[in-house]
Design a protein that fits this description.
mainly alpha
Length: 220
């Protein structure tokens, strides 16, 4: 299958560092991971030849871990430790930093107004979501009941979309998470942390939406 015909989710799972490349082009490969590369490029008016060449260059590298071949229980354990636990550590610190930046720089035009509120909303959304996965969905999948989990999986996918919507608002009010020239150290550290969170969350959602859930529903 040609790259242009592959879904964004498939590409991220098979080509090292393609997720970082897609972030550069502001391409949503997690909640929008079922969209083909060709359709995405057409909608965004990008240069398909350039993007394909960049992806082909990346494809020469070796994946650190090919999760497409891993047992579902191993994928779940990895998601909890690498992403769930990480999000629980990231967001409280980002909320503290955002509150400080909004308070100290309240009189500056570039200050990301209401950023604290949206980070708190994301934390609340993800905390509830991850708890439901860990207590209900993941045990079902580990016990071989993934084929019967269509309803909870549908709910989880919708909640992924909801988290993605909050991320889009955060990106908008932070100028795509780009600190202004007058940004202090805390402001820069905050934006670095938000970019790391976005990267982590997009890869996390892609692993679930486009690998774990389809394989579980197929009865693996």
């Amino acid at each position: 299958m040609k790259l242009i015909e592959k879904s964004l989710g498939q590409i991220v799972l098979s080509i090292p560092r393609s997720s970082a490349l897609f972030r550069q082009y502001d391409i949503d490969f997690c909640c929008g991971g079922k969209q083909t590369l060709g359709r995405t490029v057409e909608k965004k008016g990008l240069d398909i030849e350039l993007l394909e060449n960049q992806l082909l260059e990346l494809s020469e590298d070796t994946l650190e871990k090919d999760w497409r071949e891993a047992p579902l229980s191993e994928i779940i354990d990895f998601i909890i430790v690498r992403y769930h636990d990480r999000h629980r550590a990231q967001l409280p610190e980002l909320i503290i930093q955002a509150e400080k930046v909004e308070r100290v720089h309240a009189n500056k035009l570039a200050v990301p107004k209401r950023l604290t509120k949206y980070l708190e909303a994301l934390y609340e959304e993800l905390s509830s979501h991850m708890m439901k996965e860990e207590r209900i969905l993941f045990p079902m999948i580990k016990n071989g009941l993934g084929a019967n989990a269509a309803a909870p999986i549908s709910v989880m996918e919708q909640e992924h979309d909801d988290a993605g919507d909050i991320l889009e608002i955060i990106k908008k009010i932070t100028n795509n998470v780009t600190p202004p020239a007058e940004a202090c150290t805390t402001w820069k550290v905050l934006y670095n942390g938000i970019n790391e969170l976005i990267d982590d969350l997009m890869i996390h959602i892609n692993l679930e939406n486009n690998l774990l859930f389809p394989r579980a529903l197929a009865g693996e």
